[in-house]
Amino acid sequence: MNKSKSILGIGNAIVDVFANVNENFLKKNNLIKGSMRLVTFDELNRIKSQVKITKVQAGGSVANSMAGISYLNGKCSFIGKINKDNFGKIYKKSLKKIKVNFLHNAKREKLATGTSLILITPDSERTMCTYLGISSQLNADDIKAKHIKNTGLVFLEGYLWDKGTAKKMFEKTITIAKKNKVKIAMSLSDFFCVERHKKDFAKLLKNDLDLLIGNEKEILELLNTTNLEKALNKLKKINKLIVITREKKGSLIVNGNYKKICKAHKVKKILDMTGAGDLFASGFLYEYLNNNNLENCLKKGSLLASKIIQKIGARIH
What's the CATH number for 3-11+60-108+136-308? Predict the structure, then answer.
């Protein structure tokens, strides 16, 4: 596979820890269902001590997307920061097993490898308590020009803006990518993440991104509106490739005056919504890098999203 069909993901390297809880558990711990909340190491352990762990798996939004690309036999790499601790070893081994090229050399760090406690309620919605740990320290020094030059597209994660030195890292990545005519894509990651970094994300979209992926709530928040039609009119003027996921309502794409809608795949039973957006991105980006038309990109994204919500966790394989 040539350079133009390979993808480099850059994001938080997070180990996912899964547990089933009821609605009262979320209320008792002041958690907003369906959101991602940043927590300290002590907070994570306090909440974790109250639940029964059902599964431990390497994760992180963009890393999940790279796993999906690998599932489709695409060529992909990932940069994220881990510690040389037990969870760090689990993380590295997990990516190697599914043939995602992990480009970060781990060493002993003061902060632990990042961990996300994923709480699944009976309606299959997931609520995340995330300790970023050393993943939040990913910086410009961790980005090497040779890794970006050898790819067709760089996929960045909105979550990276939450802590650490994201701005300089993004700037370095974007500068190298533009110089080498590498496409730049980003996921919005989470509604509250957009709320926190709206101005920065809007600036990135206008000046640097070729492609943006987000769900309907995230896009509306980014554009300061509660009306999808108004949002679409604003997106037309921005004239960038924007992908919007809408859960049961399917997905759509806007690129200037071009607009295409795709229905969602029907599934028998939803077990866990974790990774639905990440795997949608996998399918979309895989088709996009293989120069297939945008409707097919939406269809493949929808297909992979439908597969992952019928499993616990964010890995198809």
Answer: 3.40.1190.20
